[in-house]
Amino acid sequence: MRALVAAAVGLAAALALVLALTAVGSPPGETSPKPLLTTVPGPKK
């Protein structure tokens, strides 16, 4: 029974955090037009 209560409390806290972040909104700014490198560049030929 304690595990069920702990799970419910954790789920409620996570939901409250998500709702709080949603209410705050995203920070102002813009994204970079340059793509990020996802692989290590190899030697230039």
From TrEMBL:
Disordered: annotated segments: 25-45
InterPro entries, alphabetized: SPW_0924-like
Protein name (Swiss-Prot/TrEMBL): SPW_0924 family protein
Lineage, top ranks: Bacteria, Bacillati, Actinomycetota, Actinomycetes, Kitasatosporales
